[in-house]
Amino acid sequence: MERLRLSEINNGFILLEVMIALAILSSGLILILSSFSVSLMAVRNCEDYTRAAFLLQEKISELEENPSTGSLDGGFEDEEGFRWKAGIKDAGGLGLKEIKVTVEWKNGTAEIQTLMVSP
Predict the structure, then answer these.
(1) Distances (CA, A) of 59 to 25, 65, 66, 77, 83
(2) Which of 77, 85, 96, 108 has CB atoms 3.0–4.6 Å from 91's, for a disulfide?
(3) Ordered structural domains, the chain, with CATH
(4) What is d(CA 97, CA 116) in angstroms, rounded to the nearest whole number?
(5) Do 107 and 49 meet the contact criterion of CB atoms below 8 Å apart?
(6) Averaged over 34-61, what is the pLDDT?
(7) What is the pLDDT of residue 65?
C-alpha cells in the first residue's frame, strides 16, 4: 500500500476556501468604495463653505459702500443655488451701523456680522 504524501493531498484550494477569500475581498472593496463616496461628499461641502465665505465677504464689501438701514435679500448672479439675506441697523447712536449677512444654499448656511462707521 502506497502512502500519499501531504503535499499530494493539498494540491489546490477547495471551494470553501475560495468562497471565504472572495467574501473577505468583496467586503474590503465595499468599505473602500463607501469611504471614497463619503470623501467626495466632504470635499463638496468644503467647496460650498469656501464659496460661501467668498460670497459673504463680497456682499459685506458691497453693503459697506451703501449702508442703508433695513433688510435686503437676493441671489448671486454667478452662483446658482446661493442666496443672501442682509440686515443693517443703527448700533448705539455713535454713527455705527451693524451689518449682518447670511448666505444660504442647499446644504448649509454661513453668517457674518460686522460693525462699521457710517459715512
Answers:
(1) 51, 10, 11, 12, 11
(2) 96
(3) 13-117 (3.30.1300.30)
(4) 5
(5) no
(6) 90
(7) 81
Q: Measured between alpha carbons, how far is 50 from 56 in angstroms, rounded to an integer?
A: 10
DSSP tag of 57: H
* Distance from C-alpha of 26 to C-alpha of 32, rounded to nearest angstrom: 10
Closest listed residue to residue 105, CA positions, set 57, 60, 47, 37? 47
The pTM assigned to this predicted structure is 0.66
Looking at residue 61, its pLDDT comes to 85
Task: Work out the number of other CB atoms within 10 angstroms of the CB of residue 94.
Answer: 9
Contact criterion met (CB below 8 Å) for 98 and 89: yes
Average pLDDT, the chain: 83
The one-letter code for the residue type at 117 is V
Residue, of 67 and 19, whose pLDDT is higher:
19
